[in-house]
Design a protein that fits this description.
- This protein has helices spanning 37-46, 58-61, 67-83, 110-118, 133-142, 170-176, and strands spanning 9-12, 50-56, 88-94, 127-130, 146-150, 163-165.
- It is an alpha/beta fold and 178 residues long.
- The protein has a single domain (9-176), classed as 3-Layer(aba) Sandwich (Rossmann fold).
């Protein structure tokens, strides 16, 4: 059973938000954190937000890499956050390709629904930060009230997000979330 008190959360896409976007990234040696991500996530954690990662990983379904490859990279990434006293409460991954029509691939909400089974999240006071419109649509579909789209990942011409910022850096984040 989870805590009855509602908690506020930040739901983060991974590629293009936490790390530099690289096609089908699964190797630790290819992983590069976005500049300022540690400072920003530390700031958000100090504000009382639980941090979650929800990430589409169709490279698994395409057989470019395995779920074990993803899990190894994720464990390493979480350890890098832990070294800086940042806790990622849960990571959810959709391993399917777009044509599999699963319920977990963003913009569908299964990854968020899985997190909600373990945490009592106040979606009205929570945020989703992503780099694609499918991330923002996922937030809308899950009834997450606040959205940010970053320019550091996939390029976009238009956005349906509440806020658009260059990247997950403290300067931009601290102006929006306080």
């Amino acid at each position: 059973m989870y805590n009855l008190e509602k908690q506020k959360a930040i739901f983060l896409d991974r590629d293009g938000v936490i790390n530099i976007e690289k096609s089908y990234l699964y190797k630790i040696e290819d992983f590069e954190f976005i500049e300022g991500v540690f400072e920003s996530l530390g700031y958000l954690q100090k504000l009382g937000f639980n941090l979650f990662i929800i990430t589409n990983q169709s490279g698994i379904g395409r057989k470019y890499y395995s779920i074990n490859d993803f899990n190894n990279l994720t464990s390493w990434m979480l350890e890098e956050f832990k070294k800086r006293d940042i806790t990622i409460s849960q990571v959810e991954c959709c391993p399917h390709t777009p044509d599999e029509n699963c319920n977990c691939r963003k913009p569908k909400t299964q990854m968020i629904d899985n997190i909600l089974k373990n945490y009592n999240i106040d979606l009205k006071n929570s945020w989703l930060i992503g780099d694609k419109n499918s991330d923002i649509l996922c937030a809308n579909n899950a009834k997450i009230k606040n959205t940010i789209q970053v320019k550091s990942g996939h390029k976009f011409d238009t956005s349906i997000a509440d806020w658009i910022i260059d990247s997950l850096n403290y300067k931009d984040i601290s102006k929006i979330i306080f």
